[in-house]
Inverse folding.
């Protein structure tokens, strides 16, 4: 049985030093891109496998990545995790999940108990009402890189990967306007989240662009659950002047709004438009099916992990970056007025 391919084997074939091969395999910034490509190509052809145990002993690396997030049962987060796993596993990293149940106190407890010596880096989606900035800053000061995704802290110097909430909201509201809805409301999320602020701004700016009324009575903000959506829609239904459409910060809230509208005997689509944001699988199961702005959750996971691995490889030579990914408008029955528009 032939022996395993080593770094020395690759170096000998390519006539370069073993240290150059090692740096190329670690995606080091000081390796010529053409050389790196040759090394990676040959390593794949020879089925080279890195000895992570030895690498960890030599350089202090654990090849573990921590993920801190509010939920694992929500479709968005399961897709993000899938994207993270694909990149992490392909590079020989394992992932360790820390779930905060969307609790600020539990988030702080998790971070306080975190043994960063067992992690090479951290991927974080903060909880609602997070006040853990000092914890995150301390972790980064200790040399552990952090990349935030989805729900991020606005006032912290760190890399972030997010969906384009502003333009997604603008596109969703403009779709309602083009379908002929005149009195468009918004059921939003908690006011302190950056992405909920951007979706609210996108909603307002779309109305202003088309010369439509921005009625404060038609803007209701609360949590992200379906129950929150039901309650918010009840508040809108009790308004002095009722809207004829609603843009929801998430699909779950949109489905809650639809539940309330059905309870009031409203014909959704023809008489009242509803559009969400996420493209949760539930949006294709409910009746009528829900129009939405699809979030690139899987791609957010992949790019977050890729960015974190770059931070890990270049701890002292990599500046914080912000990546914003566009979503796709998906038109379904909940905004179908039967006019062919």
């Amino acid at each position: 049985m032939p022996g395993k391919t080593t770094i020395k084997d690759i170096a000998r074939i390519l006539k370069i030093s073993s240290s150059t091969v090692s740096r190329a395999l670690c995606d080091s910034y000081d390796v010529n891109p053409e050389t790196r490509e040759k090394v990676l190509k040959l390593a794949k052809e020879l089925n080279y496998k890195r000895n992570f145990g030895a690498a960890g002993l030599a350089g202090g690396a654990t090849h573990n990545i921590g993920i801190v997030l509010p939920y694992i049962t929500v479709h968005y987060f399961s897709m993000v995790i899938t994207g993270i796993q694909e990149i992490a596993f392909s590079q020989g990293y394992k992932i360790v999940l820390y779930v905060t149940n969307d609790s600020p106190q539990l988030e702080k407890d998790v971070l306080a108990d975190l043994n960063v010596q067992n992690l090479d880096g951290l991927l974080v989606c903060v909880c609602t009402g997070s006040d853990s900035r000092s914890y995150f800053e301390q972790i980064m000061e200790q040399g552990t890189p952090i990349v935030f995704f989805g729900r991020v802290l606005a006032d912290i110097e760190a890399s972030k990967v997010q969906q384009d909430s502003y333009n997604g909201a603008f596109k969703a509201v403009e779709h309602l306007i083009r379908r002929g809805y005149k009195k468009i409301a918004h059921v939003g999320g908690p006011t302190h989240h950056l992405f909920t602020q951007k979706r609210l701004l996108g909603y307002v700016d779309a109305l202003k662009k088309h010369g439509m009324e921005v009625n404060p009575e038609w803007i209701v903000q609360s949590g992200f659950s379906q129950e929150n959506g039901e309650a918010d829609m009840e508040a809108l239904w009790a308004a002095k002047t009722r809207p004829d459409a609603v843009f929801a910060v998430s699909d779950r809230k949109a489905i809650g709004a639809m539940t309330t509208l059905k309870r009031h005997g409203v014909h959704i689509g023809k008489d009242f438009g509803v559009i969400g944001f996420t493209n949760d699988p539930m949006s294709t199961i409910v009746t009528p099916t829900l129009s939405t702005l699809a979030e690139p959750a899987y791609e957010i996971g992949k790019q977050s992990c890729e960015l974190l691995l770059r931070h890990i490889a270049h701890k002292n030579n990599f500046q914080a970056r912000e990546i914003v990914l566009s979503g796709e408008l998906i038109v379904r029955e909940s905004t179908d007025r039967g006019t062919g528009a």
